[in-house]
Amino acid sequence: MTRHDQHLRLKSLVPSVPVPEDFEEQLWLRRMLRELPSAPVPDGFEEMLWNRIRTEQRRTVWKRSLLLLSLVLTLGGAIGIWQLLTPPTPNSPPLRQPLVIAPLTVSPDTRFTAKATPPERPALQRHRELSPIPGGTTPMLPPEE
Amino acid sequence: MSVRAADLKALSDLDDEALMALFQRENSEAAYTVLVRRYKSAIVNFLYRFVGNYDDALDLAQETFLRLYKYKGTYESSQRFSTWLYTIATNVARTFYQHRQRHSALPLSSLRWDDEEEHEWEIPDTSYMPDTRVDSTYIAQRIQQALMQLPPAFREAIVLREIMELSYEEIAEVTKTELGTVKSRINRARQRLQHLLRDLYEELYGKTPEQP
Does residue A10 have a pLDDT over 80? Predict the structure, then answer.
């Protein structure tokens, strides 16, 4: 058996893959879809796009400014209302009241007879007594020669 | 626009991710412009094939690039830039589509996006009018018309796969859908399109054998 015969025999053993009957129609459809003309892009396309971008940017800036302004106004208003509604509270300790000293009054009749009493010394400013304390310790005698 | 041509030329060799990093780090308008120039055609095309109206597609493409500018901080360097951009475009298109559906007289059931069974009952978008500024030939108009008759989730998947040539994995990432769901949607979208365009195919190539 020649090599060619062997090849034919083997070929007859392998079943051929069926091709659908509408294979050509499917192929035509796909080819037609691929060959559809491209939609043209007009010359002014990019210019129009940049105009839209610039408009959008301006709008964004305007929106942000408006938002910021409204936030500031709202915050200011809220603070104002809060201050109106809240009673004032001391935020520092009260000032010390000044000392009121009663005036020294002497009646006219006793003006020259009444003993003037010196004002009482404050306890801390009292001077120490230098005299020996009665019943206290006796001083030591000097040593004899 | 204050971007100098010399700056654009200097950046043109950088890949998308490097440009995006530059845009994030230094707020480089030149890097942003290079990215817009690279992707504007693809994004306009994707959106046109998805919403079916050229003027809306242009407007949504601008919205996509505007969001890219505004939300550049949300991009992570581990992501592929193109996938991230298509995610933005898809979200923009979905929002637009859902808004339009809400303001039309369609039943509530047609508003459901994610439930595929619901889409079986979805009313096709009959508001589509062929836009000759894009689809000048009869065949292109017919195909776009058929696309507009698909449920949006199917249309989104097939447009990303067959027209934008994204991989299944990328589509799953863009649409935040399971890979199996993506494959199923693409397969079913192909079958539907084939059914919707059979008469056109027969017109061009003769009658095909009956399907079992």
Answer: yes
